[in-house]
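Sample intake sheet
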Amino acid sequence: QLSTGSIIPKIDKDDLEVYNISGSSAGAGSGEFHTYRNARRKEMARLKKMDEEFTKEQLDEKWKKEREERIAREEEQTRKKAEKRKAKKMKQKHNKIRKKFQEDLSQEIQKGGLKLSEEAKKLLLGSGNAQEEKKD
């Protein structure tokens, strides 16, 4: 036990085993150079792969973001065009109904079924501006 009262845990001998270390001699042997080069080559390949994966992830994220923006822009354009088509269709329908109403009204007036003033007839049939004629 230590003075603080803690117990030093037993360390397994297998946990301390370290590979590829130089001996206690002054210089490294001729075989150590090749071991070092091989370990360095593997580490450099690992780092290069990590960089490539990171770059690929960044490009994928950028592409996804651009794609989402492009889709949103296209959906907005589609929505606007659909609204224009709908408005045009409603206007055509309204004009058709108005034209039919004016035709029916003019037939009734010509038959004498409706008694309207000349000013009202001109307004309803759209043959002139009643206010301009009043001024004359």
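Comment: The chain is about 70% helix and 0% strand. The radius of gyration is 46 Å.
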